[in-house]
Every structure is written in structure tokens, then in C-alpha cells.
Design goal:
Largest sheet: 3 strands, antiparallel
Strand order of the largest sheet: 1-2-3
Number of strands: 3
Distance between the termini: 22 Å
Helix content: 10-25%
Radius of gyration: 12 Å
Strand content: 15-25%
Number of domains: 1
Number of helices: 1
Order of helices and strands: HEEE
Structural class: alpha+beta
Length: 60
């Protein structure tokens, strides 16, 4: 799975949001990794900025 663009966006987001995300519930410092930056959605399918496709089982 490609993650380069998400990693870059996460580094930028950390300059604006504590922990790089807008909720302490989603803080990635304690769990590691890089959050998804969703580019678009269509029904139950979502795509991140790296063009990876996912199924949104949470309907969010």
C-alpha cells in the first residue's frame, strides 16, 4: 500500500494540530503509524490521497 503522500500530509498537519489530528481520540503518537487522509468517497468506498481504496464499514 502506498503511504508517501499521507506521510507528507501528516507532517504538515502536525504543524497545525496537536498530534497532527483534530481529536485526541485519533492521536497517532501512542499507536504509531500514519493516519489516512481521505480524498473522496462514493457510497461505501473511500480513497485516500495515495489513491488506495477502502471499504468504509463505519459509514463515516
Amino acid at each position: 500500500m502506498k503511504r508517501e503522500k499521507s506521510e507528507s500530509l501528516f507532517e504538515t498537519a502536525k504543524q497545525y494540530f496537536p498530534g497532527g489530528v483534530n481529536s485526541p481520540v485519533r492521536a497517532f503518537r501512542s499507536v504509531g503509524g500514519t493516519p489516512l487522509f481521505i480524498e473522496k468517497g462514493d457510497g461505501c468506498h473511500i480513497w485516500d490521497d495515495d489513491r488506495n481504496q477502502f471499504i468504509d464499514f463505519c459509514c463515516s
